[in-house]
Amino acid sequence: MEGLDESLVAAHLRGDPAAFRELVRRYGDGVLGYLFRMTGNRDQAEDLFQETFKRVHEKARTFRGGSFKSWLFTIATRVTIDTARRRKRTATISLDRQTDCDDEPSLLETVVAQDAADPVDEVVREEQKEQVRRAIESLPVGQRAALVLAYYQHLSYQEVAETLGCSVGAVKTQMSRALAKLAQRLPDSVDVTK
Amino acid sequence: MNKHLTEQQLIDYQFKLAEEAGLNAARTHLAECEECRQRLQKLVRKFASLDLLRDEVEVPEDLLSKTVEHATRARPSRVFWLYRVPALGAVAAAVVAGVALLIVSNSRQDRQPMPTAMHDMPAQNAAPAPSSEEGYALRKDEAMSLVAERLQKAELAPESKALSFDARQTLAGSGAAGRVGLAPPEPSSAPGGSVKAGGPVRSVPVRASPETPYGLRR
Question: Do the chains contact at B45 and A180, CB–CB below 8 Å?
């Protein structure tokens, strides 16, 4: 797997455009999912997604082998943090999802429009998802990144440490604190089988 | 029975965040404590809600294309351009080669050696700089024609057209050397000579160097 990644990076450096496209295709879903969970906003995640792969394109020469996935998520994390800081400095535009969605249809209208089997259950489920999303968004960015990478992206603690540039012990500490906070904020009981 | 496990200990146990010793201790306690087992189950259910966001996120094809285009268009390195556009590299190489040739050519023109006679001429015999390019262009036969012409003008005898070495020396001594640059074809042992041109024999100084072959110079 890593050998193939390295081959694709090498081909990209030789100027093969198909190699870069293949890298985006292989890791696109994971990166977009990560960015979506980090930001909680699909449009913002797509912007960061493009920025992430732009940096991958520019900095491919700095890839020194090893886990391409870790290297890629390092860039994605850096892009997320940089953008968050920039937005914090120029906080003239609200990033509040509720404010952004003023003109959007209500959750119930959306669920009905989707022709759900049980609209009421679906509404409850969507509400719970929103609650989980908010709980994750409320975490400090370091804890959030550690949680999302380990829990959703299935990176080992070692890979998370490489990605975030810290020790495994520090990653476990971040995870432990993040989960302790989530234990207070997550809904009590959820049926996730549906 | 030991003390009950804290929520943090349960979390660390569930997500394998504790050290091995801590995990073993928690495992041992849970095996004996029903209450802690129930608390752990409650936590597991709570964290199960995280899976609500585990929906697979797929990158739509248009976003993928847009991303690739955006990335490749953004800031291609110069090296990358040369890889991608070989013609550009070839043109650049041709331009560099052309400039190099031009420089070398100019340099050679500047350093073009003086005619041999000029180089070998002793300093005291060096003729003044030419007033025109005539001297440069003269060849031996042209020089001889010029000498003959001047001899005619000087009303020398027709047979003197077959110039003797002495006559040439005379010409050289009378200043023609400055224009024509004739020098003796063979070494002369004496600094002077004589002219037999139908007139009185005169001694004239020979200014050409003995080492100089017939010379074309300015």
Answer: no
User: Where along chain A do its domains lie?
Assistant: 1-92
Contact residues, B window 70-89, toward A, CB-based 8 Å cutoff:
70-72, 74-75, 80, 83-84
Tell which residue, A175, A5, A176, A159, has the closest CA to residue A73: A159
Three-class DSSP category at B102 = helix
Q: For residue B193, give the DSSP letter.
A: E
What confidence tens digit (pLDDT) does each residue in B58-100 have?
899 999 999 998 888 765 444 444 445 566 677 788 888 888 8
Complex ipTM:
0.76
Cα-only R_g, chain B: 52
Rounded CA gap, B167 and A151, in Å? 112
A59 Cβ under 8 Å from any chain B Cβ:
no
What is the distance of C-alpha B159 from the center of its chain?
60
Architecture category of domain A1-92 in CATH: Orthogonal Bundle (1.10)
Query: What is the C-alpha to C-alpha distance for residues A186 and B42, in angstroms, rounded to an integer?
Result: 12
Q: Tell me if residue B112 falls in helix, strand or coil.
A: coil
User: Which residues does B66 contact at the CB level (< 8 Å), separation at least 6?
Assistant: A50
Encode pLDDT of B167-212 as tens digits: 455 445 544 444 444 444 444 444 444 444 444 444 444 444 444 4
Q: Contact B68/A187, CB-based, under 8 Å?
A: no
pLDDT of residue B85: 55
Q: B205: helix, coil or strand?
A: strand
- Confidence (pTM): 0.57
C-beta neighbour count of A185 within 10 angstroms: 15
